[in-house]
Amino acid sequence: MRPFLLALLAKEPAHGYELKQALEQTFGSAYPSPNIGQIYVTLGRLEKDGLVRAVDVEQSNRPNKKVYYLTAAGREALDDWVDEPTEGPRVRDEFFMKLVLAPMTGIADRMALINRQRRHYLALMRDLNELAERTDPDNQVALLLIEGAMLHLQADLDWLERCQEDLS
Amino acid sequence: MDTPPVISTVNLVKIYQDGGVPVPAVRGVDLRVEPGEFVAIMGPSGSGKSTLVHMLGGLDVRTSGEIWLDGDRADTLGESAWALLRRRKIGFVFQFFNLVANMTVADNVELPALLAGASPREARERREQLLGALGLADRAGAAPAQLAGGEQQRVALARALANRPRLLLADEPTGNLDSRNTRDVLKLLGQVHRDGQTIVLVTHDARVAGLADRVVSLLDGQIVDDGALPVSRRRPRGGVGDVVELRG
Ligand SMILES: Nc1ncnc2c1ncn2[C@@H]1O[C@H](COP(=O)(O)OP(=O)(O)OP(=O)(O)O)[C@@H](O)[C@H]1O
Ligand SMILES: [Mg+2]
Questions:
Q1: How far is A116 from chain B (nearest CA, A)?
Q2: Structural domain boundaries enclosing A17
Q3: If you ran DSSP here, which 8-state letter would residue B117 be given?
Q4: A69 with A7, same domain?
Q5: Is the CB of residue B214 less than 8 Å from the CB of residue B226?
Q6: Is A80 at the interface with chain B, CB within 8 A?
Q7: ipTM for the complex?
Q8: Which GO terms describe its cellular component (chain B) (predicted)?
Q9: Are residues A98 and A79 part of one domain?
């Protein structure tokens, strides 16, 4: 979550709860909503590393709130994050390890593993279908995130089919 | 008395003859589909998916085995009896569309309902509703040849549903669609299914298969898996957001 918070703070200083809301608004239900505790823990670490700094803002009838802003070092860390190439989808896949190793030990049958995994992926796809239906059609960011997840699942399923053909 | 399954096959086999060489395409399939069920059929190319649904729709003759539809034996029917049966209770979407070339899109969609005895007004209303749902309202007057592949495919789906058939058989109904058009088709399929439509649908598209209650996987003409999609463990929390996280 660190780079996301840095990016939001690059836009404008904010306190913890505003950051939580900004994340929710941007990604909708397509991204797990972080709890406020996680956000404060992350902000604390960023502060310790000198990437953000906090100022206390007095409030008339409530406790002071901390408003966070980005430091020059924070800006640099954000730039590095944006500039570095992003890891693609996993190349090594835990399921593949099971598929290769389990039959050697007699623990499981390959076809059964593949069939179970297919059903699992399709159940995820069903959830994504429902999520897409529930998502505000104007929230392009959320819809693109969902569509990306769907395309990955499709690739995983196509690959399972290959495994089933070649290993049967 | 219990309602019989919409489809029941017993040891269904299809062996094509390819220049004297037997090609076994479907090898002993036992499949039961209950009223209102949505079954997706998946499997690699050449695994026998089209052959299976063609036999279920009487478009291909089985080599051996039995097909029962709504409790009646169907595999022993002749061609004209099958044609009547299809008209009465089966909507079929082919992998390669099969629209009537010299009729407009509107007439293509209305025809099955009219043949089944719907009034012209009913047929027109249903056609308008279906073409609207599939984003094709403004193509009603076009001839099939004037349409893009993906449009023809959606017309074929509208035609198959025009009759509110007892059984919808569809072979790759989204094979030529981009993601926006696929979304329209998904919505329509989800809707008719919720209204009780029984569906057996061949697909490679996981989004479509994700709508099904149950997935049947074919490999080399045999069923290698048949079962309901599990309820995902993550669901009760409401936010399916973590599904996306899982992909990361
Ligand atoms: N008319 C035919 N004559 C001879 N062989 C055929 C005929 N139709 C299909 N086959 C063979 O039967 C097997 C199953 O074909 P089928 O079309 O049912 O596969 P499929 O699962 O629908 O594939 P795809 O995903 O490519 O549509 C294949 O080996 C195919 O070559
Ligand atoms: Mg086919």
A1: 9
A2: 2-83
A3: T
A4: yes
A5: yes
A6: no
A7: 0.84
A8: membrane protein complex; plasma membrane
A9: no
